[in-house]
């Protein structure tokens, strides 16, 4: 299997909770949608941003989404004793079962 490994830090400048990280996740997802949609002219509005800038902004917002998702995983582990490693294993098994991931 091919993996993209991205190491994201555990934030220590704030104390996130489940609801806060969930709201932040939707906020960041909205920002990602704005970059991928509006700033690529998909809303019908003219866009003045150069293509490279839009793509860089999309990557930045995607990382914001990933960072917030990782932060929410820490909250689930530390505040609710959710085993994220076990959830990850089930996730991979689901991908295989659905045919999205083929074992080599
Ligand atoms: Mg953002």
Keywords:
0% strand, 104 residues, single chain, mainly alpha, binds magnesium ion
Description:
It is a single chain. This protein is an all-alpha fold and 104 residues long. It has one domain. The chain has helices at residues 18-36, 51-80, 84-97. It binds magnesium ion. The site of magnesium ion (MG) has 4 residues, from helix 1 and helix 2.
**Distinct ligands, ions and cofactors found in the model:** magnesium ion
Give the number of helices: 3
Query: What's the total count of β strands?
Result: 0
Low-confidence stretches: none
Residues in helix, %? 55-70%
Average of the residue pLDDT scores: 93
Taken together, the total number of domains comes to 1
Please state roughly what percent of the residues sit in beta strands, choosing from under 5%, 5-15%, 15-25%, 25-35%, 35-45% or over 45%: under 5%
| Major sheet | none
The 3D shape can be described as globular
What is the CA-atom radius of gyration, in angstroms?
17 Å
- The helix-and-strand class reads mainly alpha
How far is it from the N-terminal to the C-terminal residue, by CA? 7 Å
Helix-strand topology string: HHH
Could you give the topology of this structure?
Layout: H1 18-36, H2 51-80, H3 84-97
Magnesium ion binds next to α1 and α2.
Entry summary:
With 104 residues, the chain is mainly alpha-helical. The chain has three helices and no strands. Helix 1 (18-36) packs antiparallel against helix 2.
């Amino acid at each position: 299997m091919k993996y993209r490994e991205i190491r994201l830090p555990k934030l220590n400048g704030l104390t996130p909770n489940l609801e806060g990280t969930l709201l932040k996740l939707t906020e960041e997802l909205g920002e990602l949608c704005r970059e991928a949609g509006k700033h690529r002219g998909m809303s019908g509005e003219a866009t003045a941003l150069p293509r490279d800038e839009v793509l860089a902004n999309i990557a930045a917002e995607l990382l914001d989404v990933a960072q917030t998702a990782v932060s929410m995983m820490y909250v689930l582990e530390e505040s609710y004793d959710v085993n994220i490693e076990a959830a990850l294993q089930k996730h991979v098994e689901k991908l295989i079962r659905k045919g999205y991931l083929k074992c080599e």
